[in-house]
Amino acid sequence: xxxxxxxxxxxxxxxxIGLFGSILFIYLKLPLPWLLGSIATMAVASRLPFLxxxxxxxxxxxxRTILGLMIGSAFTPAMLGYIGNFITSLVMIxxxxxxxxxxxxxxxxxxxxxxxxxxxxxxxPGGLLEMVAxxxxxxxxxxKITLFQSTRLLLIVFSLPFILxxxxxxxxxxxxxxxxxxxxxxxxxxxxxxxxGIIGVYLAKKLKISAPFIIGPMIVSMIAHISGWxxxxxxxxxxxxxxxxxxxxxxxxxxxxxxxxxLITILSTLGYFLILIVVCSFFVFIVYSITDFDLLxxxxxxxxxxxxxxxxxxxxxxxxxxxxxxxxxxxxxxxMGIAPLFAKKFRETEKSQ
Length: 353
Hints:
This protein is an all-alpha fold. The protein is about 70% helix and about 0% strand.
């Protein structure tokens, strides 16, 4: 009987370690403590074989669902009047993704010497799980793809808060309240939000939408809030818990990987990371020059990190969340649409040689 609770206890221990890291980062006044603190302490703890810990990835779907609801709640009836202004900026995502893919494939293929298929899926700025799944079906080295994509995510998530503090001169401390405290939220609002989340995930899975746990609830929440039927947001304490869950899950990325391979992967990905900085800076400059959106919103909209992590940062920074979210949704759909097509071309080319 007790054995059935062991995995649960291991997950709870992991979350406790992640929470400890968050509190430590708050004490040290480091940016984005609830997310970065849990990543940092779990990255260290996951290397210790004597700790009976387990990744809380089982909690990732509900955490992403809450995040989707939060993003959707940022859409208001008043927004309908100016959402058309996003078009010019959204169109820039197309050449942005193309340039990142071309430069990234060249780097991993020609410079680092990986096979073309593995280089392609390592460079594509899509979701980690999606790229691994498609890469596996195409015969790519999913172990390498997982390491490279995970390292890209880690480098972006860890560097971005410091960049935002320097560029925007803003504080990303852990004491900021990003939404309504749970004590001020009506019980009926909680049931409504839970219902929206369940409906959103169900519809997204039925329609086979990519990243259903974020995009499904986001769309349903967006419709509900734009119509004025719902006005409540997920409570502040839950958003902080979501950060700890996602951060703790990310911290497990190098569990079981030899130290030497971790160092090689990080050094290899640093080259690609520099490419991303150059390409992102180029597009941020263009969009900032031709539109009226604030610099921080543009910077987050064109940051090729994980959709959940970047949107979470956008919530905490209090930038134009709908603007940022729509750019990442478009990027994901674009990558998911073209990734299998180009991968098939690569595979056909390799077979003909």
